[in-house]
Amino acid sequence: MPNNLAKPNAIQSINDNVAVVRSAINHLNDRIRRFQDYLSILPGRTEAACYFPEFRDETGNKKCIGLKLHREGKAWILSWSLEDMDDPFSTAEWKPLLDAPIRHKLLCVSGFPELLGAIATAHHILVNQITSTVEAYDKFEATLPKTGGK
Predict the structure, then answer these.
(1) Mean pLDDT within 14-35
(2) Residue 122 has what pLDDT?
(3) Domain count, the chain
(4) Residue 2 lies in a domain
(5) C-alpha separations of 15 from 18, 24, 26, 29, 55 in Å
(6) In this predicted structure, what is the pLDDT of residue 1?
(7) Has residue 108 been placed in a domain?
(8) Any bridge partners for residue 62, and if so which?
(9) Does any domain span residue 54?
(10) Residue 55 φ then ψ, to 5°
(11) Residues 28, 33, 37, CA angle at the centre, nearest 5°?
(12) pTM of the entire predicted model
């Protein structure tokens, strides 16, 4: 039967390392802010998301973490979501990355290069959609009756 009482040396170690842990978390949050600021002034930025490999949570359910750059009001922010892969009806609830649990922040920060790739892919998709829409409009416009006696 495990002893539920903390050992005195464990408590002392925790107390001794509080400042170190807080400092490390602050450094990580600073990197998130810096990347978010970088993306917010990146010319041609567009909303994009990427997803990281599935894992099982403490209850055994398959989960997937998403990372997204998007507009919130006039600001561009990084958000994260945790999606239940076992529930086909679950929908992503996106939350600011700076507010994520530390383990999720770690995974998302390591995935920043993938997000850049997703932004580049989103550019190509957007250009194709714009081109198709312009072509469709031009065809539609050609069918409109001419006015002004011509």
Answers:
(1) 91
(2) 92
(3) 1
(4) no
(5) 6, 15, 18, 22, 32
(6) 46
(7) yes
(8) 56
(9) yes
(10) -150, 165
(11) 150
(12) 0.77
